[in-house]
Design goal:
Arc Repressor Mutant, subunit A; 2 domains; 5-stranded parallel sheet; 5 strands
């Protein structure tokens, strides 16, 4: 299967748009493939199951099930396949959307943690941790996720700004010297034209760029090598932000760890003291990393 993934990466530029979407899904969701079907992948990507089957045959498999079975035989399945978890799920009916959403969200969080082991993640962490100034901007429904990221980073380090984009021109991001700075963009399908344009402008001026998006974004890797991904497709009416928030929490944790935690504890103590003086806490004991 490693040869297959290497082939998907090597041949990506030659694929059609639909084939490229399938390849990106397989590359970015390796640990989830055993749980998918040709129909479920087709539904996620907005293409036909026939297209998925044709792509599998092009790769040398009789159908998607053959690809999945080969991967299942050679992979370590995540813990959600354990008996205890299955027993817990049995409390729900098979048709219950809560069960489907719970399973899917856990799968997607597992995928986030799996991808946090790659070099792209390490590069993004280093870029953020070593920057003097960080600008964070979110688009569409991901503005809330961007706010969580910015606010959490503000607790553990100085020089973090949440960009609201109200001006419409992002001059505060693009006109300053890019040295020692970093821009983090958060957006998912359907991608805002503003997010892509801002990413292009940042690339053009040499501003270090981290893009947090979903696994189907095929333009982000062309603009930066630091692309962090999490998906949000579940069974509920509205998309889930749980996997993306898991990514943000893990990212902040690793940014702190990149510097060995230097100065973070002192900063948190000072923030806590200021908050206590200005606002105050309910005295229920000392908690780490939150509450202000």
């Amino acid at each position: 299967m490693l040869d297959l993934f290497a082939r998907l990466e090597a041949e990506n530029a030659r694929y059609t748009a639909a084939e490229r979407q399938i390849a990106l899904f397989l590359l970015n969701n390796r640990e989830l493939i055993p749980f998918e079907t040709a129909a479920s992948i087709a539904a996620r990507l907005g293409i036909s199951a026939v297209t998925v089957g044709r792509f599998c045959r092009m790769l040398g498999f009789k159908h998607f099930r053959a690809l999945k079975e080969q991967l299942r035989a050679s992979a370590n399945l995540p813990w959600l396949q354990g008996a205890d978890f299955q027993e817990f799920l049995s409390a729900f009916s098979d048709s219950d959307t809560r069960r489907k959403t719970l399973e899917r969200e856990i799968e997607l969080m597992i995928a986030v943690y799996e991808r946090s082991q790659n070099t792209m993640w390490a590069q993004a962490v280093a870029t953020i941790a070593e920057a003097r100034q960080i600008d964070v901007v979110g688009f569409q429904t991901e503005r809330g996720v961007a706010a969580i990221l910015a606010h959490n980073l503000q607790y553990v380090r100085p020089g973090v700004t949440l960009v609201d984009g109200a001006s419409g021109h992002f001059a505060d991001v693009l006109l300053d010297d890019p040295a020692d700075r970093c821009l983090i963009i958060v957006d998912i399908r359907r991608y805002s034209s503003q997010s892509r344009l801002l990413a292009e402008k940042a690339r053009d001026i040499g501003l270090p760029l981290v893009i947090i998006t979903d696994t189907l974004c095929d333009w982000a890797p062309r603009l930066t090598s630091a692309v962090l991904t999490a998906d949000s497709d579940g069974a509920l009416f509205w998309q889930s932000s749980v996997p993306m928030v898991a990514l943000v929490n893990l990212l902040v944790n690793d940014v702190v760890g990149h510097g060995g935690g230097r100065d973070v504890e002192q900063r948190l103590e000072r923030v806590s003291k200021l908050y206590d003086e200005f606002t105050g806490f309910v005295r229920t004991g000392r908690h780490r990393g939150g509450g202000a």
